[in-house]
Every structure is written in structure tokens, then in C-alpha cells.
Predict the structure.
Amino acid sequence: MKTHKGPKPNIIPIKNQYEDELKNYTYLGNQSPTGLKKANHAEMLKHLEEKNGPWFCAQPFVNLYVSNYGVPHACSNTSVTIQNHISSIGLKGIVNQPQCSKLRKEMVDPKMPRDQIIKNCERCIETEHSGHVSTRWQSNKPVYDDPEVSAELERLIDITKEDPEGNIPTPNRFHTIRIKSWGNFCNLRCLMCSPEDSSGVAQEIIDLGEMDAETILKRSEERTGVKMPWKPPLIRYSDHAMDEDEFLEVLSKTSRIQLIGGETWLIKQNIQILETAIEKGWASRLTIFCFSNNFGYPNMKYIHHLLSQFKKVVYRCSMELWGEKNNYIRYPSNWEAVKKNIDLIATLPNVDLGVNPTINPINCGYAHEIIEGAAEYGIVPSFMHTSRPQWFNLKCLPDDIKDIHLSRLYSFGDTSNAALQKVIYYVENAEFDESRYHEMIAGIKRRDKHRGDNILKYFPEWTPHFKGDSYYE
């Protein structure tokens, strides 16, 4: 693997600049996907625990997650950050950072206050409270289905109960590692993405004057208390100085690795991970869990060849719509190329193929189309609510478009479809945020003019909201 062999970056602590943000977690938005007010996650958790028993998640015990910006989290679905950079603590140092240890301790002792659970698990708490499948559930099931990891989890739970701080030894077996710090290079500028996750989005935000590089950096620094060793728009693998030997040691005792971008196949380390695992003889026992926009990599047959050698491939297609309309939200994607690559991946004998759209103001009224398209492959889409940017979530949805969307969704033949019900639930319960709506319209206008595109070419129902602008006449 071509990982960084140079000196580690000089990570400068700046916690004193962001004392309130770090001490009181004020950087957490606590934004409900549907409500305008701050959600009461404590009450939601209390209700769930009374109904289902103590809250527990395996992620802070047997999973590892490192963000694009080089900072670990206790799980893959929390905004709470570990206040250290990966180059300072290493992968094996993640497990006993205070944010992980305290969270584990609360999970094994139902009598303890639920402070860390409420902060870390707010998204899953609200999702489950609304009656839908959460990331917690999706993470726990494969852990318990893996006998070796399940046994290791029980051992670590016992140790956590005994240790006053909730510390544990480095696990003998990990279930999933999700290391995103190889970089954020991406060839798309998706409306529902962030500058930390996509170099394309970061560059466009800078070009449009919405944020400068320093403002983007500040978002990461105020939640970590360290000076970031990278500069937008592009995060490189060399910025984080990952220890290759340690990474491979951890990978050697891992059941599943998630590969993600940026765009997964345009980040060379992700492909080198596949090649290395095959060379070392690990592929036959290793599951690959990967996400891809299925556009831009010049030799997808080679990816197909590599993936075919693994025990299992969980392949999730990152897309918003079925057909040409997908090109607009995931600009400048090309549906013909995307569909061709999906068809290729679908021929893998070891593949669990899936589709993962967000639920956003533009695509939600067309959820039935992606459900029908995915059904051609025998799969059901897994819809995720959009958390950022805040000007592109369902609370930006004006009443007239909301009515059009719901009418279209209810006209779909099978309204009992669980995926469709989830979309309908979130659309129906979304409260209107007028200021964010105006921010959304302005943001779309800037992007259309910058790209030479036009929302009305794909979604004419939005015409009344763009009247008065000569660009749309």
C-alpha cells in the first residue's frame, strides 16, 4: 500500500479556543430531521428503554471509525468527536479515548446517567422512536451473527463492567473498521454532501463564495480542539500519516471493512486495500462493505475482479433517483454510465447489492421510482434522512411541493412498502423552516448558474419558486 512514510503532522492543540464547544458539546446541532425545535432525546430514550430494555450498541466495543478529516468517532453515526487526531493516538488508541470509554460504561450499566448515550446516539434514538430501523440495529445484527466477534463482544462487556473507567484491551477481533482518512477526493458535487466528505463539493462552495477554506477548517477544529493538518478542498492520505503496519495488523483481525470516499474507487488506497487483502490471503474470510456513486472509475471490470475474490461484498449504490434525474442532484454524474456499472456489479456471485438514497426536498416525491428501479435487482432501497447541509433537508420543503410529493407517493401502487412508508413519514412530519427554504432556493440558483444546469429541466413542479429570475424563463 502507498501510505505516508514521512514524519507525522505536527498536531497543535487549540482546545482553549473552543472550550465551550468541546466541554458542552455546543457544536452538536441536535437537529431533528423533521422538527424545528431541539428534539428531547432524553425523553425518547427513556421511552425506548422502558419498552425495549437498556440501550446498547456494539460499535464502541468492536468497531472503529475515523473521519475524512482524521478524527475518530465512537461510532459511524455520531457527530461527537474524539478530541484527538488519528496520527497522535493510532487506530488501537481509539478504543480507550474518554468519549468511547464513558459511552461503553453507560451501556453496560443501566443505572448510570445516560449523558453520553444521549449525545452520541441522538440520530438512532430519534429514528427508532419514530418506528424505523436505525444504524444501531443495522450494526448490532451482523455482530451477533458473527460467532467469533460476538464472543469477543461478551468478553469486552464483562471487562467494561469491572473497569471503573470503562476501559478495555485492544479487541482480539474487530467486526467493522471504517477508515475514511485516506482522503475526500470526489468527482461529484452532490447537493446533499459536505465539504469534508467531498473535494468536489468543497471546491464548489469555495468558488461560489459560500465558505472559504479557513471556515471549512474551523468546522472540524471547533469539534476536536486540534489544528487540522490539511487544507480544503482536498484532503490527502498524507495529511493524516496513517500507520500502515498498524492498519494492516488491525485489518488482519477484522471481519468487515467499509470502503468509502469521497468516491471510493477514485481513492487509490481503497483499491490497494483490496489488492493487499488478496495478496495476504485474507479475502476468503473478509467482507467488503463499500459505497460508490458508480461513476468515473475507468476500469470497473478490475474492481469486479477484485471484489469477486472476497467472502462477501455488501455493495451500496450512492444515488438519489432512478434515471436521468439522478444527474442533477449528483452533478455531473451520468446515468447511462451509472446503470452500466450497477449491471456489472450485480453479476458478482458474492454480492449483497443495495441502494442508499437520502431523503431530500427534491427527490422525496420520486421515491417510488427508485423503489421500482431497485426492484429490478431484487433489492429494497435504504433511505437515509439528510442532516447537512441544513438548507437541503425536508424542513425546507414548501407546502405546495410537499402536497405534490405526497400525492405522487400515495398514488404508488404499494403504499405498504416499508421503504415508501419511511419516506412518507418524514415528508408528512417535516415542519417548514422558511428561512432555510429561502437559503435553499438561493443555493440552487447559484449552483445552476455556476454549472450551466437548470432544476426545472428535471423537476418542473418547482417552477413557481423560481419566477422572477430571468435565468429560468
Notes: The radius of gyration is 22 Å. The first helix runs from residue 19 to 24.
